[in-house]
Design brief:
With 270 residues, this protein is an alpha/beta fold. It is built from eight helices and ten strands. The strands form two sheets. The chain has a five-stranded mixed β-sheet with strand order 3-2-1-9-10, with helices on one face. Helix 3 crosses helix 5.
Amino acid sequence: MGTYIVGDIHGCFEEWITLKNRVEDKDSKAVFILVGDIIDRGRQTIPMLEWAMKNITPAGKYQMIIGNHEFEKIDWIKSYLKQVDQSQTEGRHFDLEQMVDDNYEFRFNCLQANLSNEELSEIMHFFEGLPYYKDLKVYAGKRRQHYIIVHSGIHKTMINKDESFKKKSILNSHNDVWMSFITEVNKEYILWNRNYKGNSWLKNTIVIHGHTPTISKQCTSRGAISGKIWYNCCDINIDCGLVYRRNTNYKEANLAAIRLEDLEEFYVYT
């Protein structure tokens, strides 16, 4: 049984199923961890989301951490549902047709799928329940390798001396204003930071993340191979930019997974 970390899917549901099935054909007990950003940009956001809500569990065969796109949708859906409630109180009608667009096509996708307000609420709660990181130790041969899985990256202030993740750096604290501030800053970093330099301050830990497509000039100019997993000083970037293969004709763009036990790579397009 292997543990497979999967890069940003961005609504490319068919490719995700292809990659998943390819891995499971060889490893029926495979465990998958998606690094977030399963929605937006791609043409199959709703099918991908429906699959995730049926199959993702905190510690099961299919797991997931939150990405910035899921995080953004929490506030967007909250805003929408609040306006629905307010309009009902005022005796007027308000629905998705009247809601302002999000930064992508999520509203349009929800309208096309004819999602109800109850279903949108369920989506919001699903996103709210996703963790911000996974802190894992996996046997690689005879030794245990420590991994931290996040969406975009971590800062050294989030790490203990033994290189484990500081849980308090990301947990909400309603009684401590300073701790709440630190939490929000760290959430921003974990979800939106772009790491091009690796993690030279780590010794025994590897951070695995997505968020920044390896097809981008910012990555390739620093040594990444376009559309391939990028290894960079205790840092592994597995966002190989799949969605841009369709949208902007990047032929190298891909969906990738990496097996933690031996760092074997798996791709949809070979």
